[in-house]
Write a structure and sequence with these properties.
Layout lengths: L5 H6 L12 H7 L16 E6 L2 E5 L1 H4 L12 E2 L17 E5 L5 E4 H4 L5 E8 L22 E10 H7 L10 E6 L9 H4 L2 E5 H6 L2 E6 L2 E2 L9 E3 L12 E7 L6 H4 L24 E6 L7 E2 L1 E10 L5 E7 L7 E2 L1 E3 L9 E9 L2 E11 L26 E6 L4 H5 L6 H13 L9 H13 L4 H4 L15 H4 L3 H10 L13 H16 L1
Parallel strand pairs: 4-13, 15-22
Antiparallel strand pairs: 1-2, 2-3, 4-5, 6-7, 7-10, 8-9, 8-13, 10-11, 10-12, 14-16, 16-20, 17-18, 17-21, 19-20, 21-22
Length: 518
Amino acid sequence: MSSFSRRSLLKAFAIGGATAAVSPLARFASAQAMERAMPTGKLASNFHIHNDMPWALEARRSALGLAPITPQSAFFVRNNLPTPDESIIANRDAWSIEVAGVANTGRITLAELKTLPVRMEAAVLQCSGNGRALFPHESSGSQWATGAAGCAIWTGVRVSDVIEHFGGAAADELAFLTATGSEELPDGVDPSQVVVERSVPKAKGLQDCMLVWEMNGAPLPLVHGGPVRMLVPGYFGVNNVKWVKRIALTEEESGASIQVSGYRFRDIGESGRPEHPSMYRMPVKSWLNGPGADDMPVLKGQATLYGVAFSGERGIDKVEVSVDEGQNWQEAELIGPDLGPNAWRSFVLPVELGTGRHRFVTRATDTAGDTQPRDAIPNHRGYGHNGWYDHGLEINVVEQLPASTATNSPDAASSTTSAAAAAGAATSGASRSLSAEAMAGKDIFLSQVQPGCGVCHTLADAGTAGAIGPDLDTLRPSVDQVMRAVRQGVGAMPAFGAQLSETEMRALSAYVAEAAAG
């Protein structure tokens, strides 16, 4: 089996056993459902579906928007092996992780992890191959453009605290932190060829790495590694091992193919070897998500360009935008909260758009002074593309929006929401009761959307005290204001149009307006 690449082996998961001699991998694949429903919490309309066994879901540009936090419903998925059975999240607190390379080797459950000091970290996850489709050469793997990335708030404990809990490192010469996933491995195949096991330098592991069990304030979804995954802030996604069953301080890097030869940055035509750089820190990068992404026409006149930028471990100093392929640049405004050096920053730039097609490009500079290059470095697997030219967004500006687009515009909602606003104004007094529509909206506020409204917003009626969004009791927004924010997103808040129907958005808007006014 050593003559096969890891990607070649995994290719068998999409084969239905057409050969007479059925291999162990083909037998394993035949036991899996080939056409499946989307993972829990994912909206198909938010994604380009590259593969469903294992999952490879790329968020559309329009689904990412400008929010600093990516909702679970639009967060990309890249799994190297099929997702484990849902039974592993039936009793999350019982999940057990082996801890080795420490003074007192042992196991720790999720329930026990929660007794250690809890931390939160906002961090971008990005597939090493994000941007692969933009390279001129044909490299294997999912043809990601921009959407194999997302930013979330992760809750868990530092690996250093876990190591300390077991008496510290067993020896000084242990140089790596190695994490092993618990995906089912096919019979008859050398485990080292397919196991998901990655090593990072011990210094990085003890300084930054976490074992996390929540994503955006909710239990970590199965498809994202629940009950527990590794978080390596600032590093490419492959290092953030899902469904962690073992962590260890080790003298050498993992001997798994995914470490030894996979995810190695090398020249086109070369095979991966340990001497090639591993896909660790993510370089500075930015791109626009709108308006006009995914071929949506934009009305001529005043518009606001918006996008995201990040640089692993460093954060962003500035973002610039050009309409003439980089001959001239104009600095954009960084907006919303700065959630730390491993999160992405949202940026905007107001522009006046005339009819026709316009192409905009962006370049970011991080806090260490590194600026996004014009072109990416060509490499065999199409890894690490951060060239600003290829990430440009072409916008189609029109005199008049098509009828279907105009009907769904924020202005078209004003007349439908005015009745709800009037209903909210008709009641008075601090003890006012909620309308039937608002009561339905309360359920949506509390539990239906991801991230949950209460994760960010404070609203006394809902019993929430968010850490990021504005205090709605103080802001007291109107129904129309809430409707526009829900539909379009604003500041740190993502758009929820892809998650909610028109009726649900109206109900949510009515609830916020009535509850805040009361």
